[in-house]
Amino acid sequence: MSISTPHDEIERRCYDDERWEPILSRSFLQQAGVSEFLLRERQLALAAAAAMGALTGGIQPPPLAPAPAPTPALPSPTPSAPSGTKSDRVDNTTFNAELFDVYKSSATKCKALRDKIQKQELRALPLSKVDGQSMCLAFHSKGLCNKNCPRAADHVPYTPTEYKDLVSWCKDCYES
Fold first, then answer.
1. Does residue 90 contact residue 146 with C-beta atoms inside 8 Å?
2. Which partner for 34 in 14, 20, 29, 144 could form a disulfide, CB atoms 3.0-4.6 Å apart?
3. CB atoms within 10 A of CB 102
């Protein structure tokens, strides 16, 4: 029984046409550009072999195994349903229609108002009683939001007194 060294094993696999297959995910191979790398290495090896043959009077090394097929592109993840669909929607079950109904029926979109705040065309929203960050305008003034809202922590009930600052902001900043 002969014991083979790692070098012997590599030579056996290369020269006996045994194909080595990596145990890596397709995604990893694609992201790492392994197929492109192997193709380039094969091209370099063939060029080196041709040069070697010219130098040695035509003695060629054993043929290389065929280049692996390029890794097929992975399917793109399917996009999630657009925001606002029934499955994404979060309703404010304690919506205060007396204070905010006029804004709920307004054509003005909360995103447009937040964009104006970002551009400093409007003053900042009042702070949440929960974490001291901006209140969720859509949840409180429109009565609905979505489950991916970055201000989901503010999706909590407020009393009319706690709404005082938001009511003032809406009167000043909402376009009717």
1. yes
2. 29
3. 13
Compute the C-alpha angle 81/87/89, nearest 5°.
100
Describe the crossing of helices 97-104 and 164-173 by its angle, rounded to 10 degrees: 30
- What is the model's pTM? 0.51
Q: CA 89 to CA 7: how far, in whole Å?
A: 61
Short-list 173, 84, 58, 44, CA closest to 121: 173
| Contact of 36 with 67, CB cutoff 8 Å | no
Cα→Cα distances 131→5, 91, 124, Å = 64, 20, 15
Eight-class DSSP state of 153 = G
For residue 123, give Cα distances in angstroms to 39, 44, 113, 127: 58, 62, 10, 12
